[in-house]
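Posting this for the archive.
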Amino acid sequence: MRPLFFAASVLFAAQAAADVTPLRQKELARQQELVRLVRHDCGSCHGLTLLGGLGPALLPANLRDKPKESLVATILFGRPGTPMPPWREFVTEAEAEWIVERLLQDFPNEP
């Protein structure tokens, strides 16, 4: 009885993983694109290592005291009167939230 249960469990898990894999792969690919966007596009002003440049440093220590909603809004709508442009044409609100979460943790490097 156990071998049959084990085989059924493995088959069920494999089927569940197969159903999720394309969506998860797409999500991971988009996250890699977002890492590149931040490192290169944002990095052109904030420094490729996010230590600052024309724009301020985007390190966890520099951002912790700022409300997450404010950081998301800055990404989406820019900062009028400054060189910070809006990025809402390129990222969704959920993606901006993902970027902020990563910036607060220590932004990943490109794979």
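The chain has a mean pLDDT of 87. DSSP finds four helices and no strands in the chain.
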